[in-house]
Amino acid sequence: MVSAASGDVSSRLAELRKRFAERATDDLKALEQRAQLLEGEGADGAVLADVCSRLHRLAGSAGTFGFPELGQAARSLENMLEARADDGSLQEASSLAVERILALRTMLESPPLPAQVTNDESAQGAVERPEGSHGVRVRVLIVPAGKTDPQWLDKALAAYGFDCQVRHETDPELIAVLAGELQTATVILCASVRIEGVIRARDASPSDQVRRLPVVCLSEDLSFGSRYRVAALGADGFFGRSPDLSELAERIEYLALERSTRVHGRVVLVEDDLELAEHYALVLRAAGVDVLWVNDPMQLMSELSSFQPDILLMDVQLGQYSGVTLARMVRFDPQWLSLPIIYLSSEDDPDSQLEALSRGADEFLMKPVSDSYLVRAVLIRCFRARQLSRLMNRDSLTGLLKHSLIKQEVEKELARCRRDGHAASAVMVDLDHFKKINDTYGHRCGDVVIKALANTLRNRLRETDMIGRYGGEEFLVVLPHCDTEAARRLFTEIAEAFGQLTFNCNQETFGVTLSAGVAAINDHSVGDDAVDAADQALYQRKRAGRNGVTVAGDE
Amino acid sequence: MPRQSVDRVLYVEDDPDIRAVAELALVDVAGFEARLCESGQQALEQVDDFHPDLVLLDVMMPGMDGPETLRALQERPGGLPVPAVFMTARLQPEEIEEYRAMGAIGVIPKPFDPMTLGDQIRELLAGREGA
Questions:
Q1: What is the fold of A265-393?
Q2: What distance in Å separates the CA atoms of residue B22 and residue B110, rounded to the nearest whole number?
Q3: Phi and psi (nearest 5°) for A141?
């Protein structure tokens, strides 16, 4: 349907955006002045109406011009002012309003998004990206020294499940290439002769997502001077021209994971003030935090166990209930002993704060709390909570779920199958002749192979699949909505790809194959039986010559 | 009702910035022929001359607002023989019902995306024909 040259449309859109930004700047200045009037002289109906109508206009238009954050913030501010005007508490709220209007200005200064999609699915996708890069295929942009540079790396890395693209563009052309990497987990792999220009091209991008793309340098010169130069340029990794592939793959995986973990979090918010709750939820959601608002404290325990938050954010006084007592009650449940609880409080008496802390809260945020402070405080705590639970729940070598947790996942999936009637598979994966590798090349090499298999699984599986390290060289995978035949096809591919990897240890090169046994989770009445069936299928595969997949019930 | 193709859109919106971006969205991106009016009054003056296939109305405008404009268009001797769509920044479910009751075929929330505004209009029309 795009009839005119789309380049023309986008340049005209850009022009309109610029004009909008200029006018909105004036608007915001006027808003600041008027909000200060509200603060100083009390509520004047005409001033308030003017403020609300300007905010309303921004709410309805900013998103169209590429400032969705500004639009949403204006809308929430408009709602708040109207509610405060209704219940007569406008003057108290006006200093908060001034502060928030000042914050609007910074939103206008941030560069507009390249594509103005107000109900943006891709942007939501980014927000909902799961912890780490598991389920997201990591893209590697390879920038070789020149056209004649041998290109063996892209095929070798593709075997690890990376989506490799070799780019021969000049540095200025790369700016446009990189602009396409907004929503993907991408790592740039660059020859040392190109590194300076590539980093300059990356840093010239208007998008800070692009400017955060990690760059790994491949260099022939392994001297201190060469490494120092590359580090000074701001690269994120340094390898020789013939890197150890599993180490390189691991670094790429790590960098992509680090970047895509834009510290989200899950927060349960207990607040009885509707306007405030809406505002907090909006601000936190805009920062990528999942928020569940609980209005009725009676529902708190059941909402906690179904939502499984990273932290609990709670008002100190909730109608007839005390937040302090609720916190203590939450701690009755051993599941929530380590849940960080943060009070939102206007309580500034240090004694009563201490009292609250002793009863189970971890921290106070004073109302009125500024939006940016709230976001920072919540994100930091979510991040810590996740780090901690990662330490407790993840295998340190592979970052995969520990034995007991992946077994729980089988049980949970079985419950989901019963409820929804879908098919799901459990797959037991084992490295062939692993003991021989350990004995021949040493444990360090064995660990490299195990990590490589973990990375391959993470890269090949969906984000909804669950992967655990079941034993030494044994992995257990849960595939929801996947019947055994689909699981067989999937793991046949994975086994082939993994078998093509070559490992370098102690100057020797070798390959490793894997065997897998598949069982239908939904065919069993307890999760353990499904795991046993997958284990039996694996055993049959081992007897039938290893290197491949057997499904339980195969002849 | 016979299946009508929509080529000509009359858009009423008081904000000049939004009019400019909507013109781009309707004409260059969606391929409609568009007439843009800055007020309900102007829409009333121009509707017979332009012969739109569809009328798109901002809800909140100074003077005559969107619903008033629609009513005035409907109360002309010939009535309004073509579908009308509202655009609003504050979308409440009961509001949509109210606008439908007035004869609008749908509501497009603001802010709209200039790249898909045309598609949204076509979807509303398709939904009505399918009903």
A1: Rossmann fold (3.40.50)
A2: 12
A3: -90, 115
CA distance A428 to A547: 13
Closest residue by Cα to residue A140 from A48, A52, A214? A214
Q: Could you tell me if A491 and A516 are in contact, meaning their C-beta atoms sit under 8 angstroms apart?
A: yes
CB B31 to CB A3 under 8 A?
yes
Q: What is the DSSP string of A62-122?
A: TTTTT-HHHHHHHHHHHHHHHHHHHHT-HHHHHHHHHHHHHHHHHHHHSPPPSS--TT-HH
Rounded to 10 degrees, the C-alpha dihedral B15/B21/B26/B27 comes to 120
Assign A3 a pLDDT band (cuts: 50, 70, 90).
very low
CATH number of this structure's domain A403-551, picked from the four choices 3.30.420.10, 1.10.3720.10, 3.40.50.2300, 3.30.70.270: 3.30.70.270
- Say yes or no for a CB contact (<8 Å) between B111 and A68: yes
B14/B8 Cα distance (integer angstroms): 20
Which residue from B30, B110, B114 is facing A13, i.e. has the nearest CB? B114
Neighbours of A96 (CB within 10 A): 21
Q: Which stretch of DSSP H or E encloses residue A146?
A: none
Place of tokens 């021989």: A436
Cα–Cα distance for residue pair A108/B111, rounded to 1 Å: 16
Contacting residues of A for B89, CB less than 8 Å apart: 56, 59-61, 75
- Does the beta carbon of B119 lie under 8 angstroms from any beta carbon of chain A? yes
Question: In the beta sheet, which residues pair with residue A466?
Answer: A478
Q: In whole angstroms, how far apart are CA B30 and each of A81, A116, A214, B114?
A: 37, 15, 39, 9
Read off the amino acid at residue A359.
Answer: R
Q: Which of A473, A493, A508, A555 is catalytic?
A: A473
Q: Where are the domains of chain A?
A: 6-109, 139-260, 265-393, 403-551
Measure the CA–CA gap between A282 and A296, rounded to whole angstroms. 19
Closest CA to A229 of A217, A244, A240: A217
User: Which residue among B88, B111, B118 places its CB closest to the CB of A61?
Assistant: B111
pLDDT (tens digit per residue) in A312-322: 998 887 888 88
B9 CA: distance to closest CA in chain A (Å): 16
User: What is the helix (H) or strand (E) element at residue B82, kind and residue range?
Assistant: none
**How many Cβ pairs within 8 Å bridge chains A and B?**
80
- Encoded tokens for A226: 């060469």
Q: What is the number of helices (H) and of strands (E) in chain A?
A: 21, 19
Residue of A1, A61, A117 lying closest to B31 (CB–CB): A1
| CATH of region A6-109 | 1.20.120.160
DSSP three-state, residue A431: strand
| H helix count then E strand count, chain B | 5, 5
Cα dist from A259 to A126, A183, A239, whole Å: 12, 11, 20
Nearest to B89 among A20, A60, A117 (CB): A60
- In this predicted structure, the answer to whether residue A62 has a pLDDT above a threshold of 50 is yes
Question: Nearest chain A Cα to B18, which residue?
Answer: A61
The reported pLDDT for the residue numbered A190 is: 92
Annotated catalytic residue A473: yes
Domain B8-130 CATH superfamily: Response regulator (3.40.50.2300)
Is the Cβ–Cβ distance between A277 and A292 less than 8 Å?
Answer: no
pLDDT tens, position by position, A63-115: 888 787 788 888 888 888 887 777 777 776 777 777 778 778 777 776 555 43
CB A479 within 8 Å of CB A396: no
Burial of A160 (0-12, 13-18, 19+ CB in 10 A): buried
Contact assignment for B17 to A23 by CB distance below 8 Å: yes
* Nearest chain B CA: its distance from A27 CA (Å): 13
**CB-based contact (8 Å) between B111 and chain A?**
yes
